[in-house]
Amino acid sequence: MTLRPADRTLLALAAVAIAIAAADTYVVVLALPDMSAAAGLDALELQRSAPIISGFLLGYVAMLPLIGRVADLEGRVPVLLLALAVFAAGSAVTMLAYDLPGMVVGRFLQGVGGGGLVPATMALVADLYPKERRGLPLGLVSAVQEFGSVLGPVAGALVLAVATWRGIFALNLAAAAVLLVAVGRAARRSDVVDAAATARRAAGRDVVSWLLLLVLSVAGALNALRPPGIVRDLFWGQFFVSYVGTHRWLTPVGLVAVLALVALVVWSLATAHPLLDLRRWWRAFSAADLPGALLLAAALGGIVLAFGTGDPAIQVFSPAGPWYLLGSAVAAVLFVVHLRRAADPVVPRGALAHRNAWGGLLVSFFVGSALIAAVVSIPIFAALTVHRDSQVAASLVLVRLLVALPVGAVLGGWLLRRLPAGVIAGGGMLLAAAGFVWMASWDAESLEHVVSTVPLLVTGLGFGLALAPVNAAVLAATDDDVHGLASAMTVVARMVGMLVGISALTALGLRAFYAAQRDIPAPAEVCGDEGSRCSAYIRLQLDAALTQEQFIFAGAAVCALVAAVLALVLLRGSDTREVGNRGLLIG
């Protein structure tokens, strides 16, 4: 089977979109202090701005199963276009936000759109390639996604060097808009375009919707940014005076934006071929079992809020974590009951029953549990030792690991033509485990030596090797009509593994830290009259802090080892190799 150039272009554009969304996951970390200040939060209240990050995670994880199922019912390209549109809308809302709720809503929409790109693209690969040839394209998609993670902090730093934090989201908006047009054009030349293409072309000529969007955009931007020159003008300034109190949306400009939004919704529901086909998407989400999807979203959302809103350096999870987990458990029970009763549930009965399918999800969970330890603890370790005065420099140490991830992803996809998925994924995670064992032996001077780069590269390569085989095994073990859902659940499993993993590993590290602190003598015993400021006592405190990170690395090694064993056991027999190579090894 030979792909047409238009099909390749479509996949390439979808991969680029995934990279941009992946970059957006990390880019906000550098901009968080400035965003907090813009939202009116004090520099000492950065913890209150955590919802800016967790809002993205909530949208990314909680809505993925529903979007994946819609991709199975409505087609891959429509969901790609919808996800790009939602990501663009989220970027616009975040860019124009002037308070914390607005930023959180924008980030949530970005998460929904960015997350929706992944299952649609993975399912598109499965549609275009037979199972024995999916390895390399899946590896390339994973590589581009991980490259986006590397690019995120660098791109954020470059934008912040020449513009404000709003420039980051303006760049996102521009990129999403360009990709939206490019994907639509590539789809019209591709084999995967569906029967609704004519209706979508007609929708593009919906002049009323375009005009209402223009009014909404201009009025919304003026209301959010409030240009000083206009606000202070004697005539134009009165359009920014609120009718009631000081609420911005109750000013003449704000009300124009609100009315334009309401008119756009009404028009979209009334006209035959609207630009925003709300009726079609309501039918699609309803057909995908919206009640069941919302119960599953609530269960996943409780996990995200419990584990994703605390400070991983000092907390196991959010102070309200037990309540979030209780709500998650209740939603999970109701979801299971719903699955038994629904005629067409969001997760069709038996869809993930094959050992390679549910086994792939389990492996993905432990891959995420181990990976998050590297993402969080390597910068912390660097900040404690060689980069005490620069958080940016400490974060860049992680890049040494992240640059090896895309290389491993491509290599893992290529090897799938010759080796079983379980062997490649298991071997990759054994490499990652070995790298973590090495890191667990680091001391305060280790990062000063060039050799410290070796375990970082080995660990990154190992993680990369595991990505494509796990995805390929899950897709090979599921039917074509649930590939979107299966891809979504694989991503969800890894994200939930990351959230739960950092909580469990932090708990392990904190216990080691407190134990090490209890063994430190009193300052007077170590320093005499110098008190706690002498170098010997400071070194003991540093060693206690490093003990915490060393235990986290050791715990990550255990998670990686568990992932390796599960991959070798549960993914054996996965039908992902070319016919001529299946006799080389027993899968």
TrEMBL record:
GO terms for cellular component: plasma membrane. It is found in: Cell inner membrane. GO terms for molecular function: transmembrane transporter activity. It holds the Pfam family MFS_1. InterPro entries: MFS, MFS_dom, MFS_trans_sf. The chain crosses the membrane at residues 49-67, 79-98, 104-126, 138-162, 168-187, 207-225, 249-270, 290-309, 321-339, 360-386, 392-416, 423-442, 454-479, 491-514, 551-571. It is a multi-pass membrane protein. This is MFS family permease. It comes from Nocardioides zeae.
